[in-house]
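Reference record:
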Amino acid sequence: MSNGPHRIVFANEKGGTGKSTTAVHVAVALAYQGARVAAIDLDSRQRTMHRYLENRAETMRRRSIALPTATFEVFGGDDAGELDALTEKLGQEHDFLVFDTPGRDDPLARHVATRADTLVTPLNDSFVDFDLIGQVDAETFKVRRLSFYAELIWEARKKRAMATIKDARREMDWVVVRNRTGYTEARNQKRIDQALTELSKRVGFRVASGLSERVIYRELFPSGLTLLDKGQLGELGTSHLVARQELRTLVSGLNLPVPAKPAPAALESAA
């Protein structure tokens, strides 16, 4: 890849949006496509992504199997320079760096978000979550103003655009991923559709379909397996197959620059 590894940052200052689950599945999906992936967990307290990948490594050891996976680290410090040093080190041997950030306002989360090549902001389909990026009028549901977070990313993207012209850097692609849409009442979903469309035109993010709320994601965590690990999951129900298709649609919608190299043989089992 040109310009070093592609940085994917999963960031949302609210918890409970499926951020870590989405991050793990995207990282493993990239590994299945033959990419070298490193995952950096910035939530040193919860460390959900790190624990998920630890469980995956343990399952591979216990079952004596090899599955596509990611190198994984937890960054427990508070110094942006030390984080950049770790990022530089991992970037020398990987095609993608995947960052999972805490579900709260955090200086390091802002630091990596403003340096993302692809910034992924998972949202549940509710105005509670929408408030992270914009505030709406209580009567008309029209967007009244950007949130602090949206303004932060907007400014970062403007600076990035100038650097892209000057230094041939990648432009930042901001993708708002709508998770758990199946649980949204139809009228409210329409209002959110309209608000997201309006705000996307103002600040330049894209909207992608995400993952529904499914028990399978919670069930897979202890083993570290993902919906792509077809040969390890046993007999799958219809909901599992639908969930796998949701994941494929999400990964495709992110438009990530996967390097042209042979995918591992295990990819055939995920088809």
User: Anything to note?
Assistant: The beta strands are 6-10, 37-41, 71-74, 96-100, 118-124, 134-136, 143-146, 173-179, 206-209. The chain has a mean pLDDT of 86. Residues 6-270 form a domain with the Rossmann fold fold (CATH 3.40.50.300).
